[in-house]
Automatic annotation (TrEMBL):
The chain holds residues 306 to 567 of 702 of the full protein. This is histidine kinase. Residues 20-244 form the Histidine kinase domain.
Length: 262
């Protein structure tokens, strides 16, 4: 759980970092576009002798930009999933104190667990990160305070239900986080899972929280959906596959939590 808080602090730091990276990237693009413009002018003036210098400037800038994206991609691929049967209700109960401390006294954290909830087959520390992220998002959506409800529900899905969720037929444990915050307009909801999409001020949001949660849910064989209404609040539903008794342990898999632009 403390690891999840550490992760949340790291996300804040990444927010500041991405602001800086975007700035560096813009400078490199400006160098390339400036060099191209000068090449264009020289060519039209029939003075090709200056071209080599501008070409070198542009090449330098693109090389630096490529190095930067490689570092970012290496960072995004660092996570590894180690799924195991996880009692999600107990995981939630064990995190409430930390979450409450993190979101502050203005926000009320409530939990409700289904009787005899199924264990889910997930990486517990990734799930902790996801949960803390969702609660921080909920807090940010409730500047004057409010309430966050964290629920766990057993959801057996037959064919049609599973297809509607874009999941294989079977049993799922639903982790649902509901807030009564500002909600999302349609255009925000459309982009909410996009990496780096954020409506928060520079340095405060990374735009990575929901995209990482999406990657985590899909890699775990589950699904995440958001329902939101402006002025009423937001519901994030994460369906996670039920861990079957006697199931063989699953080997850790490499995640690709963030979209790879390559
Ligand atoms: P970040 O929180 O760093 O902005 P996320 O990927 O977690 O990145 O969220 C992307 C955007 O989705 C947020 O900037 C916000 O506009 C919106 N959002 C996420 N969660 C909520 C919520 N619970 N209520 C309202 N808007 C939300």
């Amino acid at each position: 759980a403390e690891e999840a808080l550490h992760q949340a602090r790291k996300m804040e730091a990444i927010g500041q970092l991405t602001g800086g990276l975007a700035h560096d990237f813009n400078n490199m693009l400006a160098a390339v576009s400036g060099a191209l413009e000068l090449m264009d002018i020289r060519l039209r003036q029939n003075q090709p002798e200056h071209l080599a210098r501008y070409i070198r400037t542009a090449q330098d800038a693109t090389r630096r930009a490529a190095a930067l994206t490689h570092r970012l991609l290496a960072f995004s691929r660092r996570q590894t999933l180690a799924p195991r049967p996880t009692p999600v209700d107990e995981l939630v109960a064990g995190m409430v104190e930390l979450i409450q401390r993190t979101v502050g006294p203005q926000v009320h954290i409530l939990t409700h667990a289904q009787a005899a909830p199924w264990p889910a087959l997930v990486d517990p520390s990734q799930l902790e990160n996801a949960l803390l992220n969702l609660c921080i998002n909920a807090r940010d959506a409730m500047p004057d305070g409010g309430q966050v409800l964290i629920e766990t529900v057993n959801v057996p899905m037959d064919g049609p239900a599973a297809r509607a969720h874009d999941l294989p037929e079977g049993d799922y444990l639903l982790l649902r986080v509901t807030d009564n915050g500002v909600g999302m307009p349609a255009d925000v909801l459309d982009k909410a899972f996009d990496p780096f999409f954020t409506t928060k001020p520079l340095g405060q949001g990374t735009g990575l929280g929901l995209s990482m949660i999406y990657g985590f849910a899909r890699q775990s064989g589950g699904q995440v959906r958001i329902a939101s209404e402006v002025g009423r609040g937001t519901v994030v539903s994460i369906h996670l596959p039920r861990a079957m008794e006697g199931a063989l342990p699953v080997a850790p898999t490499d995640t690709r939590a963030m979209a790879d632009p390559a």
